[in-house]
Specification:
Blueprint lengths: L3 E2 L27 E6 L4 H13 L4 E5 L16 H6 L1 E3 L1 H4 L5 E6 L9 E3 L3 H8 L6 E5 L8 H4 L4 E4 L11 H14 L16 H17 L8 H15 L3 H11 L3
């Protein structure tokens, strides 16, 4: 799949230094966190997200299936030009490659079959669920609709931004700034226990999903369900099980004999 780089943004005027400058602490380094904007519609919002990431020392930005030519028109203020220039436009499954943990975001109280993480509890959640050396991907939905049910299916959990019911949605740049700040300020344990097993990356989990669905077709299992529902159930089961790389390889070997 061809990758696209965003065009070089125009330089803006700096309006003053941030009081947080020099005080940020990364979760595990700026390369350990990837922000994924799913189907963004406004180039100004893309620029705002890039600036927020730069403010807090994050630099891995991916646009999943952006509306053309939106990604070509993105602009950013001083400090995020290089970040925006290096941002990639990819299909969503490719945007998640290499991620050990995928989090979605939402503001409204939605009924979801996912763990719902309050923004203030994000640090504790990551301490328990993100393995040492693991990559975190955070998904932000379309400005108009947010993340769809299918897109949320890629997520292990959802971060809840506590907005009021009267105005549940937030500007994309503001939401990204809140998440970035929470990520760099969240206290982490000084002693990190190295995991014995490496979680299966997103791309291996997708292959495992396809092989399960193919095998189910061969043995005529769950065939009474619509394709989308069958896919959702299997994907959710895999997210709950969180197989390690070795176990995923073992399952693939068995499934490919069906």
């Amino acid at each position: 799949m061809k990758q696209f780089l965003l065009s070089r943004p125009r330089r803006g005027r700096e309006t003053g230094s941030s009081p947080l400058r020099g005080s940020c602490r990364s979760v595990r380094g700026s390369d350990a966190v990837r922000f994924v904007l799913v189907r963004p519609r406004d180039p100004n919002n893309i620029g705002a997200v890039a600036r927020a990431m730069a403010n807090f020392g994050l630099r891995d930005l991916v646009l999943a299936d952006p509306y053309p030519p939106v990604w070509r028109e993105a602009r950013s203020a001083v400090g995020a030009a290089e970040l925006l220039r290096r941002a990639r436009a990819l299909p969503l499954p490719e945007a998640l490659q290499g991620a050990s943990l995928v989090l979605g975001t939402c503001g409204a109280a939605r009924r979801l079959q996912k763990p719902l993480v309050p923004l203030t509890g994000l640090g504790e959640f990551l301490r328990d669920r993100l393995p040492a050396g693991g990559k975190l991907a955070v998904l932000f939905g379309n400005e108009k609709t947010g993340l769809t049910r299918e897109q949320l299916g890629h997520c292990h959990a959802v971060v809840r931004i506590p907005t009021v019911p009267e105005v549940p949605s937030m500007n994309l740049g503001q939401a990204a700034a809140l998440l970035a700040y929470e990520l760099v300020r969240s206290p982490r344990s000084e002693k990190t226990r190295e995991p014995d097993l490496v979680p299966a990356p997103a791309e291996q989990a997708e292959v495992l999903l396809r092989e399960f669905l193919r095998a189910f077709g061969v043995i005529d299992y769950m065939q009474g369900l619509p394709d989308a529902e069958r896919t959702r159930r299997v994907r959710d089961a895999l997210k709950r099980l969180r197989p390690c790389r070795k176990d995923a390889g073992l399952l693939l070997a068995v499934l490919r004999r069906v």
